[in-house]
Structure formats: structure tokens, C-alpha cells
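Sanity check

After download, print the first record. It should look like this:
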Amino acid sequence: MATKQSRGNISLTMLTKRYDGSISLTMLTTMSDGSISLNMLTKRYDGSISLTMLTRKSDDSISVTMLTRMSDSSISLAMLTKRSDGSISLTMPIRRSGDSISLAMLTKRSDGTISVTMLTMRSDDSISVTMLTRMYDSSVSLTMLTKRSDSSISLTMPIRRSDDSISLTMLTRLSDGSISLIRL
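Expected C-alpha cells:
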């Protein structure tokens, strides 16, 4: 079913039922400014449900979001974004064993810098963030930030520069409030 909306927007909606019992509802919308969005909701024969949203804006930035509830009630989410300046980011939550949950993010900036970040939250209220970055000048840094369940915090940052020199910074705040800083 195609419909023309106000201000030059056009939508196309399609409902599909496959022979295996899967059902999909797809909506394609073009906007008067050149933006396009594609949304698809699918219920598969095994009971899993997925929602996919793809958007291309008039500035050529693109975003894709995929949300899936599997038949065992687990949920996965992935988000991919390409901006008009050429930078790209990918974000994916990951459920690990036990009650810990992680969020992984991959980012490529327009200057060539690439970073991978992993955020992990555990059931004991501890949190860790690890970020590996390769800068446009080929220097590499690793940042590790940890907040433990006893409220102590540690930050470790080794850096290898493009001239192969290495530096290390370690900052720790213990649960009693004392702070130590080591820089090599």
C-alpha cells in the first residue's frame, strides 16, 4: 500500500507472510528533503521478533538499529552509524555469564582515529571501562578505568607514541579516600 503524505513525503507499507509462518511488516518512507527510512518488524516461526530501522538522512549520514528478542527471551541490540564526515560507530550490548552485562563500541573518526571501548557492569556494582585507541598519527593508547564494589577506583593509561616512546600513568583512589599517582 503506497500513500503520499503531506509536504511531499511518500510511504510504502508491505505486509508479508511466508510459507514457514513468519510475518513481516515493512515501511519505506521518503521525505521531501531526500531522507529515507526503512523500518521492518518481523515475527519468525520460532517466536523470535526483530525490529530493523535503517535511516539515510539528506546529509548522507546513515544509521542502522537492529533489536531482536529471541525465542528464549534473550535480547540483542546493535547500532551502526555512519556520519556525513565519514566517521563510523558500532555499538553492541553483550550479555555475559552470570549477571554481568557489557557494551562494546567501535568508532572510526573522520581523521582516521579508531577506538574500541568495552563497558562492563557486574552484579556486585563494580564497573570497568576499557578503551583502546589508535590515533591518526599511529600512536596507540589503552585506558582502563575500574570502579570496584568497595568504591575504590583505578585508572591505568599506557601510551605508545608514533616515535615508539612509551608512557604509563596509574591513578588509584582507595575506598578510604587516599590517592596514589604513578607516572613513568
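If your output differs, re-run the checksum step. Summary of this record's structure: Residues 1-72 form one domain.
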